[in-house]
Amino acid sequence: MKEKHDVKNLKFQVWDLGGQTSIRPYWRCYYANTDAVIYVVDSVDKDRIGISKQELLAMLEEDELKKAILIVFANKQDMEGAMSSSEVSNALGLSALKSRTWAIFKTSAVKGEGLDEAMEW
């Protein structure tokens, strides 16, 4: 799904690529001319955070994404048992990304929380 958005003086296109295993090989088709990656993580799904880390790190190794900034949405913060943003950050190994500009935000897509702060950043 492709959407165009305007936030303040920033215009951008968003591609919702989905995270299903069968779709992941096609992600690289969208990497050209990418300035930022918004990576959405289910903060409640502790069983798959390791897979999410592997996929994220593999994606960030792609040549076309070497200079892209990274914004992580630690989503579903409205749900009981959600990992904190620091727990998600640790599980994804974000502190090891020394040569990349990145930030993580607690979000709830259902409630619309944290999204404005992330886009402001």
TrEMBL record:
A UniProt-annotated Pfam family: Arf
Gene3D superfamilies: P-loop containing nucleotide triphosphate hydrolases
Coiled-coil boundaries: none
Keyword Transit peptide applies: no
Annotated transmembrane regions: none
Key word GTP-binding present: yes
Highest taxon in the source lineage: Eukaryota
Binding residues annotated for GTP, in chain numbering: G19, N75, K76, Q77, D78
One Gene Ontology cellular component annotation held by this UniProt entry: cytoplasm
Keyword tags: GTP-binding, Nucleotide-binding
BP GO terms, sorted: intracellular protein transport; vesicle-mediated transport
Gene Ontology MF: a single term: GTPase activity
Family in the record: Belongs to the small GTPase superfamily. Arf family.
Record's protein name: ADP-ribosylation factor-like protein 1
